Amino acid sequence: MRAVVQDRYGPPEVLRVAELEPPVAGGNQVLVRVRAAGVDQGTWHLMAGQPRIVRLGFGLRRPKVPVSGRDVAGVVEAVGAGVTSLRVGDEVFGTCETGSFAEYAVGRVSRLTRKPANLTFEQAAAVPISAGTALQGLRGIQPGERVLVLGAAGGVGSYAVQLAKAFGAHVTGVCSTPKLDLVRELGADEALDYTRDELPTAAYDFILDTGGNRSLRSLRRALKPKGRVVIIGSETSGPLGGMSRILRAALISPFIGQQLRGLISSERAEDYAELRDLIEAGQVTPAIDRTYPLEEAAAAIHHLRDGHPRGKLVITI
After folding, report:
1. What is the reported pTM?
2. Residues 209 and 237 in one domain
3. Which DSSP helix (H) or strand (E) runs through 301?
4. Is residue 178 part of a domain?
5. CA nearest 204: which of 180, 187, 181, 229?
6. Domain that holds residue 190
7. How many structural domains are present in the chain?
8. pLDDT of the chain, 317 residues: tens digit per residue
């Protein structure tokens, strides 16, 4: 099979297309004939080995899994002996263990579920990690609350705007000037330009910071006295990357009236099933900026990192 592989950590140029033997599903796994694969910031972090703390879990000197990609959408080709919830021929989406930038991938049934009937494979591949992260970050949102989404036009943010609206919140999205129209199209009640608009003081019940770099002081100033902040990653530098801000939030939170916490998202089929129901009900729709063929995976990563995608990027196989 064709697959995008890397032998070392580094820039997108470390990626290359190679011929590999297809993986084999066993136990509670299924083999998926990949039709499309999503590209998210986690793809870059695992490719680059940055921040360096990620190498503790994914390979100190080189990636343990040489094939890139996690998000997947495709058709079940084979099932392990312990699988009863999925069958050969089922159209599925979720995440995989062997790398999704390939013609075949293996995933656990605990991280795969039936694809939304009203989505193409390309659209479905854009959902799992980003939308699942947004869903987990917004747990507990109440109707009528004022929610601020930072990075509202990005992968996680574009879903967070839609999900918060589906939960009945009044949503303000923050993004760059060229993306204001997209954020409004996603359903935001207000769209703020981070290059010129100041955040109002004590205005929000809940802030979802999707990979930004605003100071905790700035976030707290925009938050109501009993409000909550959830920080999802960050693209700050240093050996801990965004974890440093999350750790500071955890240290401060017990001593103030506001709740500050970070989120390390999980990959769960039950969340993807909940998202499928919202998608099929028309409450959430993937915002896709661009698709790339497998051979142009490096170009997709470059585009992801240049800060300009309007929504999600997808690799087609």
Report:
1. 0.94
2. yes
3. helix 297-305
4. yes
5. 229
6. 131-262
7. 2
8. 999 999 999 999 999 999 999 999 999 999 999 999 999 988 988 998 888 888 888 888 899 999 999 999 999 999 999 999 999 999 999 999 999 999 999 999 999 999 999 999 999 999 999 999 999 999 999 999 999 999 999 999 999 999 999 999 999 999 999 999 999 999 999 999 999 999 999 999 999 999 778 899 999 999 999 999 999 965 555 555 567 788 888 889 888 999 999 998 899 999 999 999 999 999 999 999 999 999 999 999 999 998 778 999 999 99
